[in-house]
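Sharing a chain and its predicted structure for anyone who wants a worked example. Both blocks are below, sequence first, tokens second.
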Amino acid sequence: MWGVTSLLRQSTTIRVGLSAFGFPFPAPTGVVDYRIQRPSANDRGNLFSSINSYAGSSLEFRRTERNSDGDLAMGVGLALYDNEFANGTDSRQRIIGARVLWTPTESLEFLPYFARSDISDDEVGPIFVPAGDYLPPSVERRRFLGPEWATYGGTATNAGLLSTWQPISGWQFRAGLFRSVLDDDVSHSNLVVDVGRDGAGRQLISVDPPAKSASTSGEIRATRTLYGSGSLHRIHASVRARDRDRGFGGSALFDLGPVTPAQMQAAPRPIPAFAEQTREAVDQWFAGLAYEGRWRDRAEASVGVSYSDYRKSTLVPGESIARATDRPLLWNGSVALNFSPDLAIYAGVARGLEESGVAPASAVNRNAALPAIETAQADAGVRWRVTQEMRFVAGVFEVRKPYFNLDERSVWRELGDVRNRGIELSLSGELREGLSAVAGAILLDSEVTGDAVTIGRVGRRPVGSTPRVLLLNMNWSPGVLPDTSFDIGVLHSGPIVASRNNVVHLPAYTSLDLGVRREIRFGPHPARIRVQATNVTDRDRFELQGAGAYGVAPGRLVTLSLSVDL
């Protein structure tokens, strides 16, 4: 489904490991926590525009109004994007969004929101699939191989209602109702298969019939807070439910014949004959209890248990309905001990039930929904305040879950189990006045197990894994230029496993980003102008699009943006 647009979103937090403390029902691989922006009396209108070296551009407008009584505020937004991509494709997107905050009493509030995205003329770039165990040759950036009629167009909407009620001290009731719809009017996949070492291959275009996916979900949660002598205790009771329905398949496949990187595909648009689509419905409900306790300057602890009833039915044309059910008992627990105001250790375990996505474009069963999977995680670490301004966190973790990938017939399915074991390190804070930094590292040991590995059908390392990811971000505001700041970002990735048999790897790479920001004014209006360059060294590489499938990675991109408060 469509993510929450920036016109509505105040922040996005990945709740995993240490950041999941205080979150009642964490998931082993993390929870994406979107926070909807609350309109307030202090909000101002804003106009944002940008243009980049690919000739892409954007224009965003936001405005907030509040009534004279102060109990009703409304924020609206409009965004227009003219997108240009590294593989030479482009698209047009229009987004509208609105949110309302109504507080009829001091103890009760409602926050409804709505957003709609319309995408048109979104050209679908090629995915290259080599004929053997090697990477495709370099492809010229900003050159689209076509065909120009292979596009995507569709509409996505998100709507929801959040409410909070605190009838008396120590009690809080929260409820949410959410609806997400994705309407695909036209959709294609663009594969260049059997790519030789000279770059020549055969182009396959898959045309999908119009398809719709819709999801309705909701939660009711009651929280009781108790205060003791130097302690705080919370008990959460939650009930959630969701209903999802989608159609997929029925595609028409066309072989456009030989193609080379030097030629534009000029094949005429074929007339597809669609087959009947497969229908899939998921119904799930969840009930859970969680406890969290905090003892001032000494410890934090949380524990949760929940029951989930998951039902999935799939109707393939010409076949009887296939039904799958799962009723796991899920649990989580974590503890943090403070040895001093500057030093703490933490540990946690969690078991969850999660969706595993859909099959990628390079799979024979592309867009097919995968079953829900049970996952488990254990982690532990240390949190150290090095100085008053610097924080250091080091942790170890292990995550286990089923492993899905392409088999030898290019069908995306479960091939075994994967264990991700690693170390996370981070150091953040102010190095000196005006100079701040965030440095991090993930050192990962991933391993696939199961019969497919034993008999040699699958390699021991999962596709997409890398042994290391390192990053450094710094921001400097020199005293001699009080309205100016400079930033630098460095990202390093180790070699990435690219093939199911582990023979092919994308090489390690390091990217460099640079930026400068300046505070200015347009009469009474504060404004910010920013120039940012990403992938400054213009490193030529591919991005992994699935086992043995590759897309063109972005090159150097320079963006000029202006933000004005109205």
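Comments welcome. The longest strand covers residues 171-195.
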